[in-house]
UniProtKB/TrEMBL annotation:
Names of the cofactor(s): Mg(2+); Mn(2+)
Endonuclease/exonuclease/phosphatase domain: residues covered: 6-256
SUPFAM superfamilies (UniProt xref): DNase I-like
One term of GO molecular function: metal ion binding
Pfam families for this protein: Exo_endo_phos
Active site: Y109, D153 (proton donor/acceptor), H256 (proton acceptor)
Organism, as annotated: Kutzneria albida DSM 43870
Family under the similarity heading: Belongs to the DNA repair enzymes AP/ExoA family.
Protein name: Endonuclease/exonuclease/phosphatase domain-containing protein
Feature type site, description Transition state stabilizer: N155
Length: 265
């Protein structure tokens, strides 16, 4: 089995103080994808920068203290790529790829956006470029005999079953018609598969992010925005998918929870 976990850590140094280090030491995952690390390598303790037993790469953002993604693999990657060939976004700490035997795996932190602001325009520009990359990556990987798995915080809830309060969020970034239609294109035109939804077709959820505000976590008023998106061959070999939701509010080390999928390979 190949087990892959993805989680937005909401600041790697902050998460390390709350339980991330212990989680990493206990995980059975073979690959871990991190988002929103918000740190440069020289700001991290060795146990975060180079955890024992892992081959780790951090892609920090040019803007200090923002974004940042990382990949950790128990198997040494055959190749590492930062960014996806975008002049605007390759230094933004939002995308990192590993080539592993038979697999390209990536960690993605898609911009969150904010409706009717320049941030939403930036999100749409990213989405347009990224969809092209995903189509090209699918074809190149297939030619190389590899499947593709893109894990991360996609910052879009696709359907009503993907967030609890969908009625009040229809004009909110992350659930806008244009964003949801973009995911439609990813799954229908480009041919990728939402692995967790394929294994849990009914919903609601399972949610992976809950606001720190109010009682969102206690009421399970969440969003399912942390996805594992795969080419069909790999998606068909997914056997289990779980959201590692903390037992209590106090037990959380991020406002997101790890999404973990095991694939038969």
């Amino acid at each position: 089995m190949l087990t892959v976990s993805t989680v937005n850590v909401n600041g790697l140094r902050a998460a390390a103080k709350k339980g991330y280090v212990e989680w990493l030491a206990a995980t059975k995952a073979d690959v871990v994808c991190l988002q929103e690390t918000r740190a440069e390598p020289d700001q991290l303790a060795a146990e975060l920068r180079e955890p024992e037993g892992w081959h780790a790469v951090l892609a920090e953002a040019e803007a200090k203290g923002r974004a940042g993604v990382a990949l950790l693999s128990r198997t040494a990657p055959e190749a590492v790529r930062v960014g996806f060939g975008s002049e605007e976004f390759d230094r933004s700490g939002r995308y990192l790829e590993f080539e592993l035997p038979g697999l390209v795996v990536a960690s993605l932190y898609l911009p969150s956006g904010e409706e009717q602001t320049p941030r939403q325009d930036e999100k749409y520009r990213f989405m347009d470029e990224f969809l092209t990359h995903l189509a090209e990556l699918r074809d190149k990987a297939a030619a190389d005999g590899r499947e593709v798995l893109v894990c991360g915080d996609w910052n879009i809830a696709h359907r009503e079953v993907d967030l609890k309060n969908w009625k009040t969020n229809q004009k909110s970034a992350g659930f806008l018609p244009e964003e949801r239609a973009w995911l439609d294109r990813l799954y229908t035109e480009v041919g990728y598969v939402d692995v967790v939804r394929a294994l849990h077709p009914e919903g609601p959820g399972p949610y992976s992010w809950w606001s720190y505000r109010g009682k969102a976590f206690d009421n399970d008023s969440g969003w399912r925005i942390d996805l594992q998106v795969a080419t069909p061959g790999l998606a068909a070999r997914a056997r289990t998918a779980v959201v590692e939701r903390a037992e209590t509010y106090e037990g959380r080390w991020s406002d997101h929870a790890p999404v973990t999928v095991s694939y038969e390979v």
